[in-house]
Amino acid sequence: MNKRSRRKVLIMAVVFGVAIATVLGLTAFEENLLYFYSPTQVKAGEAPQTHSFRVGGLVVAGSVNRKPDSLTIQFDVTDNTESMTIEYTGILPDLFREGQGIVAMGKLQANGKFVAQEVLAKHDENYMPPEVAAALAASEKTEEEKVNYTHQTVQN
Questions:
Q1: What DSSP designation does 116 have?
Q2: Fold of 36-155
Q3: DSSP per residue, 47-109
Q4: Do the beta carbons of residue 118 and residue 104 sit within 8 Å?
Q5: Mind listing the pLDDT tens digit for each residue in 97-116?
Q6: How is the chain split into domains, by residue range?
Q7: In terms of CB atoms within 10 Å, which end of the chain has fewer, N or C?
Q8: Which residues of 53-86 are buried (b: 16+ CB within 10 A; e: fewer)?
Q9: Which of 46, 41, 57 is nearest to 131 (CA)?
Q10: How many CB atoms lie within 10 A of CB 112?
């Protein structure tokens, strides 16, 4: 092999190595992303069935059920359009309570129940996770549009 052929082989090997490293890095990155979904999106089937994701909303009043003699708790979360059941085993944050915003990370089971590995509660009276605030704002907008449409239909 002459000098020019060796240089071409070396350049091709480096380009191939960088391409393989990029593909492996992007694949690992994609597998570790945790997307946020609202209860409406989960009920519509938009959430993944095979890996973890985050879901959030307001804890429905009267929905918190603790299993006796265990750390397992079930509660419903709503975005004011749809609600879903979340099951969590562990110690909940001190700020967790009915009517408060939460974000849970976990997996959706075949029976439609979301099993959380982690539950985060908002940390003060004014803060709400941006994803939860956006989901609630979208559901309120949808409700207003329904009311306006109904009102216009009745008038006509």
A1: E
A2: OB fold (Dihydrolipoamide Acetyltransferase, E2P) (2.40.50)
A3: S-SSS-EEEEEEEPTT--EEPTTSSEEEEEEE-SS-EEEEEEESPPPTT--TTSEEEEEEEE-
A4: yes
A5: 888 889 999 998 888 789 99
A6: 1-33, 36-155
A7: C
A8: bbbbbbbbeeeeeeeeeeeebebbbbbbbbbbbb
A9: 57
A10: 10
Q: Are 95 and 122 in contact (CB under 8 A)?
A: yes
Nearest Cα residue to 56 out of 111, 124, 135, 140: 135
Yes or no: say if 102 and 96 are a contact pair by the CB < 8 Å rule: yes
Tell me which residue has tokens 């089971």: 109
Cα–Cα dist 129/101, whole Å: 8
Please tell me whether residue 147 adopts helix, strand or coil conformation.
helix
Confidence of residue 128 (pLDDT cuts 50, 70, 90): low
Task: Report how far residue 62's alpha carbon sits from residue 96's, in angstroms, rounded to the nearest whole number.
Answer: 13
Report the length, in residues, of the chain. 156
The predicted model scores a pTM of: 0.64
Quick: pLDDT tens for 67-82: 888 889 999 999 888 8
